[in-house]
Amino acid sequence: MDLVTEVYKVTANFPRDERFGLTSQMRRAAIGVPAQIAEGHGRVSYGEWRQFLSQARGSLFEVEAELIAARRLEFVDDAGAERIDREIRRTGKALVGLLRWVQQQERSTARPRNRETPRPR
Questions:
Q1: Which distant-in-sequence residues (6+ apart) come within 8 Å of 102 by Cβ?
Q2: From CA 121, how far away is CA 118, in angstroms rounded?
Q3: Which pLDDT score is estimated for 105?
Q4: What distance in Å separates the CA atoms of residue 53 and residue 38, rounded to the nearest whole number?
Q5: CA pair distance 34, 100, nearest whole angstrom
Q6: Which of 2, 54, 104, 115 has its CA 20 to 30 A from that of 93?
Q7: What is the separation of C-alpha 45 from the centre of its chain, rounded to a whole number of angstroms?
């Protein structure tokens, strides 16, 4: 969520005509990271969770690419870019650790993870 907060703060200063362009793309990608992690956590199997974590990682890379573009277009100053970059790296490290843990759980057990979730009738 710290990444989301920083992206929203920094993109608030982007040019007004980028509201539906780079501003929107960066914000969607940033909010996509925790949203995909949460959605994956609610899935029944470790394989499904792993897939959503992989998508979250892809969104993180998307934010990074968009930050590079914003820097080249001079939409973001060095301080703002550094804050976002720091959060990308922090989030990435945590995400990789969680992904490795889920992969380990997936390999060590064949049972579904959320057995308490009611099945549709």
A1: 46, 49, 50, 53
A2: 9
A3: 87
A4: 9
A5: 17
A6: 115
A7: 20
Q: In which residue are the tokens 């940033």 written?
A: 30
What is the model's pLDDT at position 75? 96
pLDDT per residue as tens digits for the range 67-115: 999 999 999 999 999 999 999 999 999 999 999 999 998 888 755 555 5
Q: Which domains does the chain have, with CATH numbers?
A: 2-108 (1.20.1440.60)
pLDDT of residue 112: 58
Extract the tokens encoding 75. 């939409």
Contacts of 40 (CB under 8 A, 6+ apart): 48, 49, 50, 51, 52, 53, 55, 56
Q: What percent of the chain has pLDDT over 70?
A: 90
Residue with tokens 């899935």: 43
